[in-house]
Amino acid sequence: MNLQPLTSRRGRKAAVLALAAATSLSIGLSGCSGGSSSSSGGGGGGKATITYGVWDVTQAPVMKQLAAEFHKQNPNITVQVQVTPWDSYWTKLKTSATGGSAPDTFWMNDANFEQYASGGAIKDLQPMVAKSDIKMSNYVQAQAKAYTYKGDVYGIPKDVDSIALWYNKKLFKEAGVKPPTSSWTGDDLIAAAQKLTNTAKGVYGIAAQNTGQQSFYVTIPQEGGYVISPDQTKSGLDSPQAIKGIQYWTDMINKYHVSPTLQAQTDTAPDNMFESGKIAMIYEGSWAAAEFAGVPYTKANADVADLPLLAQPGGVSNGLANVMSAKTQHPDQAWKWLEFLGSKHAADVQAKTGIVIPAYNGTAQEWATESPVSKLYNLQPFADELKVATAYPSSQNTSAWADAIVTELNKAYTGDETAAQAAKNAAAIMNKALAAEKH
Amino acid sequence: MSSPVTAAEPAAVPPLPRPDLRARRRSSKGLRRGDVIWGYLLIAPTAIGLLGLSIWPAIQTFWFSFTTWGSFGGHTFSGLDNYMQVVKDPELGRSLLNTFIYTGMTLISIPLAIALAALLNRKGLRGVGVYRTLYFLPVVTLPAAISLVWKLLYNGDFGPVNALLGLVGIPGTSWLSNSHTAIYAIGIVSIWSSVGYNMVLFLAGMQSIPAEYYEAASIDGASKFRQFLRITVPLITPTTFFVAVITVINSLQAFDLVYLMVGPTSPALQSAETVVYLFYEKGIIQSQGGYAAAIAFVLLVLILIITLFQFRVQKRWVHYA
């Protein structure tokens, strides 16, 4: 809202028209700058500063600790950790990658990987992997595969996540409900949620979230369906199994009334409701352990159980990888840093902090039993869930449909449409976006 | 403007002294070369900034609207494809409607600003500075901060808005995530945040009205309210026109409040997204830069048409004293 005073009458007319033209067209196709690297010595083996783009504030201290350790081993290379909050991470990364100023190394996730690999924004690491000690077989197989594009490795898996059922021990006790067990079915969950719901106190049994990963991305495979076909060409949202997986959630709001409405969840984030004892259960990720441990109420009252059984075991797992910008000025130094991050040692450091589950084979168990958060919560469900979970639904341009299907499915959550109607519309939008991808 | 008004001609607008056009032309022709160069040097910083940051991107955007984008910048010419898609896109119609509702609501800030300015322009009012500062505060506050605070005010569970409505027995709602109320809730924030700036402009306009008009009207027995309607309102129409044009241009480009207060996964998104939000969604989130450029160009044409229309009809209601 910037207004400029304009003076003379004729000048005003011309100026207003020019202003209208200029401002409305320059609303933002031109890029903003990210952090590029700077070098003081130049050359392949000289002194260099490498940037490392990450989005998680909770993990930033660990990343900085690793960077400091790496600098000690390689005094010529300084790593600068740049934190951009999740909400703007991808927007900023894409603009800076387009403008050639992306960080030298940065975090990548399953959903965005193919776009960056196929678009030539990240470096093909295959030649470097071939020459180094890095073995892709050392990492969780689903993730090692997820970061391979046309047979070449483009990303070194960093960590993985999975979803389990978080619940509030105190609310269960107060309502006289037995804690969830590993033999719970979907019906058991609803029955417990009904007993836990106390609208007079503003307490609900569960939050039926609309963010895919904490809701229908989990239940669709559990009902035997899929969000995207394995060859990434077709949406599976309109299959009867998928509709069941979606209706699981919409029924909680509109049929059983055991979840806050979607509007209420938009006003107050479900995580915050859980942290303040307003909801008794929530499907939430392994990454939330550190967050919940940081809040006194959930530190004392939360715990984790296995996901209730639906038609078959299943779930969703997303994973991060470290990648290198295709336009980095220091590929050799950047690779050294990625190698360091891919080592068993770096995985151990991360496992012990308990913030994330490293993608290095075997460290998940270490995280579940030895990290500080494992002293607070039963983390085994996450480690078990990793074994049955399917990869995060993604395609070449995941963002062309990921938010759009949420917008459509929202109409089933608010009760304006049936789950079947909303799923059909969402599938149509997704299929259109998938058809537009060039393989 | 200090022509004498006799008591016999109350409220008559005195003729302006005509500027001597010949004199002005002579002086501009008489500039020396050095002066001309200095002149260009002095406007250079602004001109270069405008060319590089506004005009050139605008030209590029026009070109981009005929192309299809790859994920990271590469683009291929695709003729009128984007425009064909724009015509068929139901989202554009929806976002245009939302944008017009928002613009219509923001225009309410103009009569409000005039009323406030008139109240603050009274002689002998105590604490004028305090009031002016209070009303102007939203203008110097970051939109992000404004959005954050209003989001809390509008919260369906513990928001003060619902608490106040509850006192008089009106049941509230989740104002920003209810698809029936979201765009109006945002419109109210827009009114609130633009009224202060407009008020300052109107105050300036009012203070340039010669006191003699009011004196003459008082002598003739016109009430304060009649003076406001017959003298103040007509004589600030140039300001009103300017404010209206700028408000419309700015409101048609509304983005920040929707982005900050609604967001991509809200159930109210479709009934609150504006044209520029759609541009952001297509161009930035979904990587369809070419299509987004076409949307921006459609918006440009729309703004030009509406602005031209405003200039056409101004002759009927704007009085340049």
CATH class of the largest domain in chain B: Mainly Alpha
Q: Name the chain pair whose interface involves the most residues.
A: A-B, 54 and 70 residues
The biggest beta sheet of chain B is recorded as: 2 strands, antiparallel
Percent of residues of chain A in beta strands? 5-15%
Strand order of the largest sheet of chain B: 1-2
What class do helices, strands and sheet pairing of chain B give? mainly alpha
Number of helices of chain A: 20
CATH architecture of the largest domain in chain A: 3-Layer(aba) Sandwich
Features:
heterodimer; A: 439 residues; alpha/beta; D-Maltodextrin-Binding Protein, domain 2; 6-stranded mixed sheet; 4-stranded mixed sheet; 14 strands; 45% helix; 14% strand; B: 321 residues; mainly alpha; MetI-like fold; two-stranded antiparallel sheet; 15 helices; 2 strands; 68% helix; 2% strand; globular; disordered N terminus
Q: Short description, anyone?
A:
The complex is a heterodimer of chains A (439) and B (321). In chain A, β1 (48-54), α2 (60-73) and β2 form a beta-alpha-beta unit. Chain A has 2 domains: 48-160 and 318-388, D-Maltodextrin-Binding Protein, domain 2; 163-314 and 397-435, Periplasmic binding protein-like II (D-Maltodextrin-Binding Protein, domain 2).
